[in-house]
Every structure is written in C-alpha cells, then in structure tokens.
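Thread amino acids onto this structure.
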C-alpha cells in the first residue's frame, strides 16, 4: 500500500491517506494517523435522516412544532 495524498481524512483532516482498494467504484481510503476508513467522494445519504429534516422544517415553518417537540419525537 502506498500513500495517497489526493484527499483529507473525514475524521481528523490529516493528509496521510493510504489507498485500500475500491468500493462501489470509488477509492476506499484509510487514514494513516487515526485509522479511520472512508470512501473518497462518498455521497451516500441516509433517506430516513433526510425525511426527518424535511418534516421538521415543514412543521417549524408552519408554526406547528417546536425544537423540544422534535427532540421528543425523534429521540435526540
């Protein structure tokens, strides 16, 4: 494995990145400092989180909800 200096670590922002192969057609990277594994250019988004955010913004703008209510509903 050689060093790969094109991206920064998503966890500690270090530039010491080691190539780890391919995952879903993109580079799998491992940080040389903290050991964090990530995919370069990973644009994966959890659909449940997006739906929760949309619902919170909608209720809040309509005046039907408060931040405390959202915290109770979503257990955060």
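Threaded sequence (76 positions):
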């Amino acid at each position: 494995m050689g060093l790969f200096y094109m991206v920064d670590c998503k966890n500690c922002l270090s530039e010491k990145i080691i190539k780890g192969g391919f995952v879903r057609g993109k580079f799998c990277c491992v940080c040389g400092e903290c050991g964090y594994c990530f995919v370069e250019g990973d644009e994966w988004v959890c659909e449940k989180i997006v739906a929760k955010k949309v619902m919170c913004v909608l209720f809040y703008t309509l005046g039907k909800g408060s931040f405390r209510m959202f915290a109770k509903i979503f257990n955060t």
